[in-house]
Amino acid sequence: MKKELALDKFIRNLIDKYLFEIAVGLLILISVFIRFKLAPNTELSPDYDFYYREWVEFYRQNGIIKGLSNAPGDYYVPFNVIYALSSLFPCEAWVPLSIVPGICELISAFFIYKIFYLLTGKKRCSVFIGVMTLYLPFVIFDGALWKQVDAVYTCFLVISIYKLLKQQYRASIVWYSVAFAFKLQSILFLPLYLIIYITGGFNGPADEEKELSERSAFSILEFLWIPVVYLIAGLPEVLAKHGLRATYFAYLEQTGELDSEGYGMVSFFPNIYNWGFDDHYKLLSTAAVMVLAAVLVVIAVFCYRFRERIDRNLVLYLAIWTSWTCVILLPGMHERYDYAMLILLTPFAIMVRKKIMPFMVVANICSLIVYGITLFGAKIIDISYISVFYVASYLFVTADIIGLLNGGNERSEA
Asked: How many C-beta atoms surround the C-beta of residue 394 within 10 A?
């Protein structure tokens, strides 16, 4: 038998001891390489040439202070600061605008690992599932190809959910407030916090049980962090003399664009408004918001009625379900607005609630088809048909979580 070389022996020992760590490292590097290859393409993005590149060029021509005083676009201040800082780099605008979401995707992956390690105690599976979120098509396409920034506010949302599951309510609300200051779509998760407040917290694991008074230490005053952080986030433009109204009313102006720019009831998002209701925004938009409010009230009452059954797993399930409810019923939803919901639903179905895996897969396929339509022009299926499958998946998940809350005997773990 031939003697094994010392180098080969060293490599084999390294593989024996650290195969999992090596695999994780390689998977992360491959995900970075995929983004590196896709990022230079700016032709597929429907927004890069008309908005993002122009905004960066605006700051290059005017400087950061003058640029912020006349901030272009309709984003709130934190994103305008990102575009302003991107103008400082001597490269094409797509470079920093691809790096920023890429970094936030990695942060989200890390905290998804922490969330599912907290829920399941399975460290390696949780690490793997966190890394796998880097390979979800909508995650890759949104940042690398579209140059969108959904990954930025989502990473703060994921951190806030992790802190919430740890029952660190103040920290959770503060991180949520940061997410809200970055993007209005964070409001899709606000119903979760209201429900948790109304129910007086939730049940922790048996080895972490606390007195009811301690578990209920989620004061309504914590919600004041949302306007406080929002006001602080606007200071760069206020100090640059952009004006109080122009700065702090940014979100109000964004909601007005749904009508003024002709988006209608829905914009390439597979919800119920694709079934013949899209062109009736003025007639239906207010009613749609009121219907959502009524549904959320019913959800809150239902959760309060069965509050003793809410544990960590159900808190995360409620986060997914309530935000999914919002995108199904709210008017003016765009193709990317379920980004945060899907990035939580996917690992949750795999790690915790395997029963809903088929519906998670359908939701991801619907998302992939929609990105194919908006980025690649691949109109192989009409959006109204996609909506049937997407809404059906939501309804099955709705039935499942209602059964969990109402049944009591079936645990929320797989």
From this structure: 23
- Within 10 A of 41 (CB to CB), how many other CB atoms are there? 14
For residue 317, give every residue at least 6 positions away whose Cβ sits within 8 Å of its Cβ, in sequence order, or none. Answer: 348, 352, 353, 401, 404, 412
Task: Report whether 380 contacts 279 (CB < 8 A).
Answer: no
What is the value of pTM for the model shown?
Answer: 0.93
- 293 CA to centre of own chain: 21
SS (H, E, C) 140-177: HHHHHHCCCCHHHHHHHHHHHHHHHHCCCHHHHHHHHH
One-letter amino acid at 378 equals A
d(CA 299, CA 398): 10
Are the CB atoms for 165 and 59 separated by under 8 Å?
A: no
Q: What is the pLDDT of residues 335-376, one digit of tens each?
A: 999 999 999 999 999 999 999 999 999 999 999 999 999 999
Distance CA 29, CA 178 (A): 29
